[in-house]
Write a structure and sequence with these properties.
The protein is mainly alpha-helical. It has 6 helices and 3 strands. Strands 1-3-2 form a 3-stranded antiparallel beta sheet.
Length: 152
């Protein structure tokens, strides 16, 4: 059995679940989950408004995932911990938040290396390209259907 006996949907969902589990293992002892990491990472580049953070992360957060406000302001939230400061509507990492981001970023880099083990850079690029084409095909079909057209 070489993995090709299962459809792509199986592998996409299985990989997604494994990545979630690996992030928990990678960041759990830092008191971070994947969603908190994503916010720290977005803010590591520049201060952003809450709306900009939400917009940057929307593609990664499926329905049912807590709103970024809960992750920022909840009992274990990034603002509550002092890792993110708020000035009006703008959010920025504090010194403590930058230190947490550096530690987490190193671990996330190790996780990415683990994920790509056994693949050449070209294979990774091709995999991403193929998935992008497949997503584009489905997006076009859905848009056509929504517009009253037929699938290609």
């Amino acid at each position: 059995m070489n993995g090709t006996d299962k459809p792509i949907g199986y592998w996409l969902k299985h990989l997604h679940n494994l990545i979630e589990e690996q992030f928990d293992a990678t960041l759990g002892d830092l008191g971070l989950d994947r969603r908190q990491w994503q916010i720290l990472n977005v803010l590591s580049r520049a201060a952003r408004s809450r709306g900009e953070v939400e917009q940057a992360l929307a593609p990664f957060w499926p329905d049912g995932v807590p709103h970024p406000g809960a992750i920022l302001d909840g009992p274990d939230g990034l603002v509550t911990r002092g890792w993110v400061a708020e000035d009006g509507d703008m959010l920025a990492l504090t010194e403590q938040g930058r230190a947490a981001h550096r530690t987490a970023a190193e671990r996330v880099g190790e996780t990415r290396q683990l994920l790509l083990r056994g693949l050449t850079p070209e294979q990774y690029v091709e995999t991403v390209r193929v998935l992008s084409v497949m997503a584009g095909n489905v997006e076009s079909a859905l848009a056509s259907r929504a517009a009253g057209g037929k699938e290609d």
